[in-house]
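Session log. Operator J.P. requested a structure for one protein chain; no other inputs attached. Running the standard single-chain path with token output.
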Amino acid sequence: MTREPTWFGQPRGLTILFLTNMWEQFSYYGMRALLVYYMTKQLLIAQGTASIIFGVYTACAYFTPIIGGVIADRLLGKRRAIVIGGSIMAAGHFMMTFEPLFYVALATIALGNGLFLPSLPSQIDDLYAPGDPRVGWAYNVYYVGVNIGGFLAPLICGTLGELYGWHWGFGAAGIGMLVGLCIYLWGQRYLPAQALHPRVERGALPQVRFPREIFLLLAAIALAVTVFRSAYEQVGNTVALWADIGVDRTTPVGTIPMTWFQALNPLLVMVMTPPLLAIWRNRAAAGRIERPARKMALGAAVVAGAYVLLGLLELAGSPSHWSWLAAFFVVLTFGELYILPTGLGLFARLAPAGLGATTVAAWYLATFAGSLAAGLVGTLWSRVDHSTYFFLLAALGGIAALMLRAIDPFERVVEERRLHDKVDTSAV
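Structure written below.
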């Protein structure tokens, strides 16, 4: 276990990464909370087209990290990649305040995200000595940072955009990105040295072996997560549209802003994560450790159940009381906590030395493909009745659960061989 001073029982660097990520996610989810409403209400883009644009944008935001991860590992180093990427993203958010720059702004944010996104979580493992048991929970702690930013974003950016003008909300997102950059620069002394400079001398690229069985395992999981994402990503797309037209948002003190419902998911992540971590620690202490693929399969099945709930509500007739939408987010978030941070941690843990950012970027490739698929699935919102649409999303979640469950035996074999290889290496 590391001897460095800690904050909250973890290396101080984790707090820096946590806060940097929190503000980056604030900027991303702040803009995303407004995007589909801005396109359909301000720019008067048709729903089907807006869904495609939403899907392509979110897909590109998770495709560029594939290239950005390689650039960070081989050329820039993680620190430079984060600073350059974050600066580009901030510029893109401010561009969103000008309607003629709409498409240029989206492209700018996606490009900056490519450098920023894989470089930050790939530094987590660097904070811990080999065998430090705290690393197992570090990614769930990090994921809470994602959701604090995601919780604040709709409340601040969404409220500003919905009540005072969309451009105020986009401007607030840009400010959040700048805050994250300042925190990262201030906290450099708490981060490992390899996060500050590229590992490779200019002109010399190391020969890194990526084991075939690990590659196949990660590819199979990425495919299942792609299917899962095609349903999950509707939270910011068609589910957001349903919150506007299919939900009774009135309360005794007024009408709930439609963007506020997007704050429920990250709020619930913050509330649910501590008890779930306690349960998992107790199970691990009792020798009942659930393998990642099996845990992810359970999460996908729970998310499928959340969409079944929406389908049943539509069959019962609209509009539905807002409390049912809140219940949907409770179920969805519970499933999300089993699949998304688990998958990110698995990719980071199995990364070969020297390819940390690149392997984490491969996790976002699944998000890219799933977001692109979600955009296509979203076009069905205007073509079929809404109950059928929600049952379709449930089916996609169920298919992903079956795929992950089928991967479980292979994942077990790979993990056992990897542990065996580690023991042999340490013995030598």
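Operator note: Residues 6-200+208-427 form a domain with the Growth Hormone; Chain: A; fold (CATH 1.20.1250.20).
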